[in-house]
Write a structure and sequence with these properties.
7 helices; binds FE2/S2 (inorganic) cluster; NuoE_N; oxidoreductase; NAD; elongated; 5-stranded mixed sheet; 2 domains
Length: about 170
């Protein structure tokens, strides 16, 4: 992990080559001189290689890499619920409780998940396997009620589907 995420030094020493290639790929998609445009995809890359969360050091290193003030990274990372600023479980469940999902039974789904895992929103199971989050609309209202498990959407949820889904997670 440490060698993946070398966080101090000259720009060429920040992160390892594999991570730098991923960051540079996204940075190159935006107009020259506008590195701030790449903050969101770069944060996703760093979160994915850092056990699902972003430390302050990681965000500062990204700011140095992009050549922008640290606050420009912090303000993005703290605004979006998809970014984690403290350690999370091995798997992250993001349950939408916004209006469409609520009308279609997300409260029952929430109760089922909470009972099954023994945790509430914003908590992680004692074995570190799951973190449960309550999130706003994920843009999949047509599949309400729905949740995001790690990187996959699961829609038209029922309590039976929740049992099968969670039991199937390794
Ligand atoms: S309200 Fe749940 S996905 Fe839109």
């Amino acid at each position: 992990m440490t060698e993946m995420l070398q966080l101090t030094g000259h720009k060429d020493q920040l992160f390892n080559e594999t991570v730098r290639q991923q960051l540079d790929n996204w940075i190159s998609k935006y107009p020259p001189g506008q590195p701030q445009s790449a903050v969101i995809p770069c944060l996703h890359i760093l979160q994915n290689v850092h056990e699902g969360w972003l430390s302050e050091g990681l965000m500062r290193a990204l700011a140095d890499y992009l050549g922008i003030p640290a606050i420009s990274v912090f303000e993005v990372a703290t605004f979006y619920t998809m970014f984690e600023l403290k350690p999370v479980g091995q798997h992250k469940i993001s349950l939408c409780t916004n209006i469409s999902c609520q009308l279609c039974g997300s409260q029952d789904i929430a109760r089922r998940i909470q009972k099954k895992l023994g945790i509430g929103f914003g908590q992680t199971t004692a074995d570190g396997k799951f973190t449960l989050k309550e999130v706003e609309c994920l843009g999949a209202c047509v599949g309400a009620p729905m949740l995001l498990l790690d990187h996959d959407y699961h829609e038209h949820l029922t309590e039976e589907k929740i049992d099968a889904l969670l039991d199937g997670v390794k």
